[in-house]
Specification:
This protein is an alpha+beta fold. It is about 25% helix and about 35% strand. The protein has a 6-stranded mixed β-sheet, with helices on both faces.
């Protein structure tokens, strides 16, 4: 197997430039998540790789096999690319059995009956549904239907599978279970995959690398830990994780530290900005890094506890101070009234 290489891909739809020069590489055995808000271009990029959308510039290739090259006039049709596709809707034939749904594409390709039986049985065994081969999709749960769609994609033994929000139709608990199943399946089979999602937790759980898209361009890419712990921009910081935001004025930047004036209080954090004194600044802190302090001190604001919310494994506490809202997690509820809320200096990123 060889790398999937996408170079400087551009694509227009309805007169709008959806992809503005996107490049990525997917090595064999690696899962890359395309993450971003609605309209960022992640599904369009996946569809372009599949051959379902026509780019206007750039190239797509796996090894020396070129799928698309604008300069050379190459645009291989989807059925010749041999890529596995799993759609959000699953797109299963309701009147065909599980076996026949998985076998259908092989029959169209003229594969022999004996080989079809062997490959379909192997695919269904890999997803744990061999015992349901004779059932019809309406007789299956949502999670089982999703597995059938995955079996249909992997039965071809493609060089790459493309997953377009395959877990979004499942309820919250099933989605958590499906994340574990899908990650284990991909690792066990050594698959290469591109996984489109708007769910950052899903992306971090399943992918080896994340490509974060914003407005048709790559905002940041790297390992999930890098995107979460070292965001390269305000957009990346706010998109990943649950955050508190402090809007203020830059007072000073020195030695990698930045100080903000927030509601008359000085707040110091890690400088992620090159702005000068007097410019607007924005501070970001992950909820899990927030602290409740017993007294006044550096980077602490006196705030009023407004709402405690029970989440099961912990509480989320919502504090107010004028127009400023801050949230933090706690192991137990707190007494109403005023508390000192700390925005730890090493956890406060100033953009």
């Amino acid at each position: 197997m060889a790398d999937l290489v996408v170079k400087d891909l551009k694509l227009h739809l309805g007169g709008h430039e959806i992809l503005k020069g996107v490049s990525l590489t997917v090595p064999p055995g690696q899962v890359v998540a395309l993450l971003g808000p609605s309209g960022s271009g992640k599904t369009t990029l996946l569809r372009a790789i599949a051959g379902l959308e026509a780019p206007t510039a750039g190239s797509i290739a796996i090894g020396d096999k070129s799928y698309f090259d604008a300069d050379k006039g190459i645009d291989m049709p989807p059925e010749q690319r041999g890529l596995g596709l799993v759609f959000q809707s699953y797109a299963l034939w309701p009147h065909r059995t599980v076996f026949d749904n998985v076998a259908y594409g092989l029959k169209l390709r003229g594969v022999s009956e004996d080989e079809i039986k062997e490959r379909v049985e192997r695919a269904l065994s890999q997803i744990g549904l061999a015992h349901l081969a004779a059932r019809f999709p309406p007789q299956l749960s949502g999670g089982q239907q999703q597995r059938v769609a995955i079996a249909r994609a992997i039965v071809y033994e493609p060089p790459l599978i493309l997953l377009d929000e395959p877990l979004s139709n499942l309820d919250a608990k099933l989605r958590e279970e499906a994340r574990v199943f899908l990650r284990n399946l991909i690792v066990t089979l050594g698959l290469s995959a591109i996984h489109v999602t708007h769910d950052q937790v899903e992306a971090m759980a399943i992918a080896d690398r994340i490509l974060l898209l914003d407005g048709g361009v790559v905002a940041q890419q790297g390992a999930p830990t890098a995107l979460y712990s070292e965001p390269a921009s305000l957009f990346a910081a706010e998109f990943m994780g649950s955050n508190n935001r402090l809007d203020g004025t830059v007072v000073e930047i020195a030695n990698g530290r930045a100080t903000l004036d927030v509601d008359g209080e000085r707040m110091t954090g890690v400088a992620r900005t090159t702005s000068t004194s007097g410019a607007k600044g924005i501070g970001i802190v992950r909820l899990e890094r927030m602290r409740i302090a017993g007294s006044a001190g550096p980077n602490r604001l006196r705030m009023t506890l407004q709402t405690p919310m029970y989440l099961g494994e912990r509480w989320e506490l919502v504090f107010k101070r004028g127009d400023l809202t801050a949230r933090t997690y706690a192991d137990a509820p707190m007494q109403p009234g005023e508390h000192f809320v700390e925005f730890p200096p090493d956890a406060l990123w100033v953009f």
